Amino acid sequence: MKTNLLKPIIFFCGTAIFLSACTSETEKSTTADSTITDSTRNAALKPVGPAPEWGKTIKPEMQVIIEKLSSYGDKPLETLSATDARKNHAPTDAVMDLMKQNNMVVPVATVDTAGRDIDVEGGKIHLRIYTPKTGSGPHPLIVYYHGGGFVIANVDVYNASAQALAEQVGAIVVSVAYRLAPENKFPTAHNDAFAAYEWAIKNAVDLKADPAKIAVVGESAGGNLAANVSIMARNKHIMLPVHEVLIYPIAQADMNTESYTMYANAKPLNKAMMNWFTEKYLNSMIEAQDSRISLINADLKGLPSTTIITAEIDPLHDDGVMLAAKLKAAGVKVNAKNYEGVTHEFFGMSPLVPEAKAAQAYVAEQLKAAFK
Predict the structure, then answer these.
(1) Keywords for this entry (predicted)?
(2) What is the tens place of the pLDDT at every residue in 274-301?
């Protein structure tokens, strides 16, 4: 994914984008101070061609983003090395470019950001910490895990989601840059995810957070990590999150489900990419049956209340549905919501995609209720 920590890039959040220069030590955000209405935005987002064969129900705004992503002409991710795949454009790039083309700018961020490196077994990982500018605290605390199949992406690519959580929930968010595969094979990302959660609990007071009000949130691979953090906390008899939000999580290993078959050629995630991610992260494909990857085979009893978000046009749609059913069967309180006409990665696209704006508001509502 295209990122450069030494050069300014535009981040988007909620109904906003933010121009931010980031370093590993301090990370701050500034923005322009004008707004754009939903009606103006939607009028500007008209698809050029017909709906794709793999997504006949796709919403116009979502299709425009996919068209923009396709226009970059990147080689298929599954044909590349991990190093080269990380140079491909991300959906984030398409959103940012569309916003620039349509002169879409928005209000000032209501959070400050800072970077922190922490020690983990075998190395270090980076955390980006979002702190609300208003309120004296202590604030609720959210540990957030980005997506990317355990192989690509980073906290920059998923800045929009983390920042939206901080702003809409009024929480401190710790976004975790866990180590990526194939340089770091399974279960490195899982162990890093739990180490970051432990760090967050131990340092909550210093962060001006309430250690009794902690939740985990993750997208895609990060959704898998967030669920595993809850499981590990239960097994190790340390404080459980009060809630977990799993957004189109990787939850099982069968790539012949109905949604995998129906959306095998979807964008920005397809079946071939999922196979590529799996091969890159796991030491052998047999490990795909490990309950840390196939969450539907894990012991899910005693986990915190859970919100699961799925996208209609997504190979991982059925993963989320199956996991919700397994959690309910294990006695876990689950709220599951599917969003029609959108694809994998839609959650962070709220400046352009109404369903993303609605999903962020729904997740914020669930988290605030849990924190009460």
Answers:
(1) Hydrolase, Signal
(2) 999 999 999 999 999 999 999 999 999 9
Identify the active-site residue in 29, 220, 259, 294: 220
Given the residues 314, 318, 319, 350, the one annotated as active site: 314
Token digits of residue 302 = 């005693």
Integer Cα distance of 283 and 320 in angstroms: 25
* 69-118 pLDDT per residue, tens: 999 999 999 999 999 999 999 999 999 999 999 999 866 789 999 999 99
Residue 319 is encoded by which pair of tokens?
A: 């993963």
Active site includes 97? Answer: no
Query: What letter represents residue 368's amino acid?
Result: K
Cis upstream peptide for 182 (omega within 30°): yes
Is 344 tagged catalytic? yes
Count CA within 13 A, CB hemisphere, residue 31. 20
Residue 43's pLDDT is 61
* Active-site annotation holds for 317: no
Q: Which of 126, 156, 344, 350 is catalytic?
A: 344
> Which range, of 13-22, 107-116, 305-314, averages the lowest pLDDT?
13-22
**pTM value?**
0.90
What pLDDT score does 229 carry? 99
User: Looking at the predicted structure, is the pLDDT value of residue 15 above 60?
Assistant: no
Q: For residue 145, list its beta bridge partners.
A: 176, 218
Query: What mean pLDDT is reported for the chain?
Result: 90
Q: How far apart are CA 160 and CA 194, in angstroms?
A: 23
Q: Alpha-carbon Rg of the chain, whole angstroms?
A: 19
Query: What's the start-to-end Cα distance of the chain, in Å?
Result: 37
Q: What is the mean pLDDT of residues 186-209?
A: 98
Question: In what side-by-side order are the strands of the sheet with 243-247?
Answer: 9-13, 16-22, 26-30, 111-120, 123-132, 172-177, 139-145, 209-219, 243-247, 305-313, 334-343
